[in-house]
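#struct-queue
[09:14] JT: dropping the first one here, sequence first, then the structure tokens:
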Amino acid sequence: MTDADLAAVRAQLAVSRTRVCLIDTPGSGAVIAKRQRPSRGPWRAHAVNALARLVGLSLLQAVPAPGGAKAQAIEVARLAALAGEGVRVPELLHVDVDFFVIRHLEGASLVQAIEKGGTGGFEAWQAGLDTLVEVHARGAYLSQAFARNFLVTPAGLGMIDFEDDPRQVMSLEEAQARDWLAYLHSTVWLLDRDSAAIRAAFVSRMAQERPEVRAQLARSASRLAFLRHLPRSRRAWGREVVGMQAAASLFHLSAIAPAKMHV
């Protein structure tokens, strides 16, 4: 970035109250300046860890999200590492004391594409499955692999939001299986296809995953399948409950097991 670009960024941050700012710079074009997130209290992590212990799944444990300079350092490092693996993430342009700047990754949210329904919506969902397979094949992982963090760009799906690093507390195969849980939890309930089509698309992608990841997901499926009995009404319970119910229903229908992925 040029001095003029940085001056434009600092001028916008000086008058903006938002943490994430889209800024048009004279030399680098549209960029995102991201300030540090305040540190979070420990209560949420305690609740998540209690749930992980209850169902016996360490990959569901809370990943440290310290906020402040530590969180910024984590995201900067993760952006650099993912870019180095060939994963489509925003280009890191500048790191400052209390903010950093990335190139604006133009594209609509994958959620919007899936919500359109029909053939296009189902294909958009499958593009997310393919992206996870591709990222994992590169030996990488995303962490916050919710559909809201996938952007539909002309070059394919791009990914954002890397403020934590699950490898601090879990193995690579657990981190990659965790990506699948996050993606399925945030998308399956949006689909308007019958369960057989959804299952076939999911299982075909699982056949391309490493056995260690399939084993982690199979274990998760056996522990979480009971959640399919949760209420289906989003209005009464909220989308988080509906998302868990839909993902668990997929696990139940897919009868996931490492030896059964090659179908």
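[09:21] JT: and here's the second one, same format:
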Amino acid sequence: MPPDGMRMAAAKGSERSTDKLLKLLDEPLPKGETILARLDATQAATGQPAHANLLRLLTHLGCTNDAARQVWSAFELHRATLERRLGRDVGPRVALFDYLLNVDRRLSNPKIIELSEFERTEKSAVTDHLTGLFNRGHFDDCLRKEINRCRRYGQTASLLMLDLDDFKSINDQYGHVAGDSVLRDVGRLLVQRVRDIDVAARYGGEEFSIILPETRRMSAYVVAERIRSEVERFFKRKIINGREVRATLSGGIAAFPEDAEDPEALVIRADEALYRAKHAGKNLVSIFYLEKRKASRINIESHGIRVQLEGGRTEASAAGRALNISEGGILIETSRKLELGENVEVKLPLGPGQELSLVGEVVRLEPRQNGRKRVLYDAGLKFRFGRRASPPQLSRFLRESAAVGA
């Protein structure tokens, strides 16, 4: 896809939003309905500042949504006044500009320009011209607005940071032309894998970012894994200037408000998860996890385990083992990709014919690779005892394990 086509694809969500706003002006008004009422309904349905967005689209004026609503309210009265005096409806655009020029005087020297040309100029200011994705400045602005929206409406959002693995070696081995080609291809793949409401940007260099509104961590992980595997698959057969070029990327995920309460901290958390994926072997996606345990952990890495999942699925793998345990939870290593929030039953062998059965909720999931390039998962489980205290067998097991460790 040529760069212009990628830029258009990256901005498809904005284009559709623009079309919907313009329809509020252009569609016929049933008797008794007003444009103000349509904007009110749109804001209530989408949670977006429809009044300010449409005013900015038509006039390039920036103001709060409350101030913009006052403009649209006054516009309705002014349009009705013009119709009475002229004996005809001048249309919403003429009435709006006449009000802003001659009554409100918020505009003084407006420039007449075709809307499509204006949009092309505006898109150019927020677009990274190599990849066709949004640029860093637009990303920062969108992330701030998304966090404010989540605070206002009590919603969640996830941030995905992606970084090409060993990109410097691609430039060194194949040249910067090949490196630019890789960046363009990754940009195109990201555009194809995100929703209209998502914001995919080139964060800087070979690093990319995606804002995922109304998306929890595990759903973001599914998106990230799909992108990671697609990039790996695409570059297994990529030929640039007659040479085969391989490329993979790693990712880190953090969520608002669980992991951070402001945009800057959310980026830091997602970056920390990204670095974990890099250190774990690359070509992986990691979810940010903040250690919150209150009880001390006891290492029990020699213990093999059996893991019983919901629905009766059983895993009995040589890679399945307990890593450490406390009164509140257990950290296990497993080759099965569990899900956050899933209930898991772990069976610890205590002796001949004896085992300790513990049920926990998956609250942490960390992928990594072992020496054979096999992907394993460290899964943290929080025990679920209901209103009961921990079972006596667990307390005894902890005392005996601590004594052995001492």
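[09:30] RK: nice, looked through the second one.
[09:31] RK: The CA atoms of residues 186 and 231 lie 7 Å apart.
[09:31] JT: good to know. Residues 1-15, 314-319 have pLDDT under 50 and may be disordered.
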